[in-house]
Specification:
Elements (H helix, E strand, L loop, with lengths): L1 H19 L18 H6 L4 E6 L1 H4 L5 H10 L2 E4 L5 H4 L9 H12 L3 E8 L6 H8 L5 H18 L6 E6 L16 H7 L3 H12 L4 E6 L13 H14 L6 E4 L2 E3 L7 H13 L3 E12 L2 H4 L3 H24 L3 E6 L9 H4 L5 E2 L12 H12 L12
Parallel strand pairs: 1-2, 1-9, 2-3, 3-4, 4-5, 5-6, 6-8, 7-8, 8-9
Antiparallel strand pairs: 8-10
The structure holds ligand G3I.
Ligand G3I binds next to loops.
């Protein structure tokens, strides 16, 4: 009798599995315990690449083997945190320093990881010879445009065939707290070359490496606001729509995902709505720099669990919301953390007044935090084979 019931349940599971596209679980057995699997293995079940930004100094530090070990074991995609930026690649005009970036590419190749290229055009971390040359008038506007074309061409060609997604243009749009508060193109490139540098950059990148996916990358794109003039997500949506309609070779939008627990933030439906809007334009999406920082009050720094626990829980929830939205958007190709350990995170060096931190999945001693388990459970419970066919008891 018991056997018959099991067989019936199993048959029903097979039937449901066919229609719902879930892998049936045979009677009497349960799926292998996934809790010991890596993030990358769990991501693979959804064809989702799980990435991290890599700090090359930490990767190369023999005194810090755990860093290297975890980059290798937990992630299927890597992004150079700094070494592919213009100031690192060409610190002196005409002299390229490919070494550190090549090292990362080689590391990724050996470990079967994809590489997100970061970044071809950005107003920060530019070499001083370039910014000073423009400021003192020795580099003209025409020459600046030629230099940008040369930079994109040289860099994309150097890494040709080795980059999965390029962040072609980064952080071009202003924020509502800038002046004027209506969103506009900001920074060095818009100021000196005007708005057309964006379309040019994508065309030059495509010509140099036709097989890389070309992304526009920015922060504060997690959800739409009121779709008014100060709504950055809406501004970027219209900008990339316009680029697409004009035949500019753009393939995706990267939503960085730098969040803080002191803010209201979003629910997974709002985030999915934004991703769906971008993919509705025929673009891929990706989370490219996810971290969730918290204010390091005196209590947090003093180890007061009353202050630490709510932050760890809020952080976990925010990570999870982004992951759930990414899993729900079938064009979300990768989910990259901007570092994975509080031991190596840009946050405390950047946000000092008040001090912020606790922004990553692992603490400073490489102990996984609540957020790590939340991300894992999202990857596990979001679909087959761990979700059984549903039905009445
Ligand atoms: O390389 C020098 C080193 O020689 C010197 O000893 C040290 C002393 O401070 O500074 C080092 O440079 C620092 C560099 O990171 C490498 O560690 C810079 O001061 C520091 O400003 C730089 O910060 C980086 C920041 O971008 C700069 O804009 C962060 O590491 C990096 O995480 C951050 O990444 C950006 C993304 O590219 C774009 N999106 C936002 C994200 C966070 O700001």
């Amino acid at each position: 009798m018991r056997l018959r019931r099991l067989l019936l349940v199993s048959a029903a599971a097979v039937a449901l599995g066919g229609t719902l596209n879930v892998v049936p679980v045979s009677a009497g057995s349960s799926p292998p315990d996934p809790s010991n699997q890596s993030l990358k293995a769990l991501g693979q079940r959804h064809n989702l690449y799980i990435g991290t930004a890599v700090d090359m100094a930490a990767l190369d530090d023999p005194a810090d083997p755990k860093y290297r070990e975890l980059v290798k074991s937990e992630f299927s995609s890597v992004t150079a945190e700094n070494v592919m930026k213009w100031e690192s690649l060409e610190p002196t005009r005409g002299t390229y320093n490919w070494g550190p970036a090549d090292k990362l590419i080689e590391f990724a190749r050996k470990n079967n990881q994809k590489v997100r290229g970061h970044v071809l055009v950005w107003q920060n971390q530019l070499p001083t010879w370039l910014t000073e040359g423009v400021a003192n008038g020795t580099i003209s506007t025409t020459e600046l445009r030629d230099l940008l074309k040369k930079h994109i061409t040289n860099v994309a060609k150097h890494f040709k065939g080795k980059i999965w997604q390029w962040d072609v243009v980064n952080e071009a749009a202003s924020d509502p707290w800038d002046s004027p508060s209506s969103i506009h193109l900001k920074g060095f490139w818009a100021q000196h070359l005007g708005p057309n540098y964006i379309a040019d950059a994508f065309r030059w990148a495509r010509a140099a490496d036709p097989s890389a996916l070309l992304f526009y990358n920015d922060y504060n794109l997690e959800a739409f606001g009121d779709k008014g003039p100060s709504d950055k997500t809406y501004y970027v949506y219209n900008m990339v729509k316009q680029l697409k309609q004009s035949g500019v070779p753009i393939d995706g939008v990267g939503s960085q995902g730098h969040l803080g627990t002191q803010y209201g933030n979003y629910n997974a439906f709002q985030v999915k709505e934004a991703l769906d809007a971008f993919s509705g334009l025929g673009l891929s999406t990706a989370f490219t720099e996810v971290d969730v920082r918290s204010q390091m009050t005196a209590g947090v720094q003093g180890g007061d669990s009353n202050e630490i626990n709510p932050r760890l829980q809020a952080s976990s929830d925010n990570f999870s919301v982004l992951m759930q939205a990414c899993l729900a958007n079938r064009h979300c190709l990768s989910f990259t953390f901007w570092g994975f350990t509080d031991k190596h995170s840009w946050v405390p060096t950047w946000f000092t007044d008040p001090l912020e931190g606790l922004a990553t999945l692992y603490d400073e001693s490489y102990q996984p935090k609540r957020a790590y388990y939340a991300i894992k459970s999202d990857l596990i419970f979001a679909g087959p084979p761990y979700v059984l066919p549903r039905g009445k008891k």
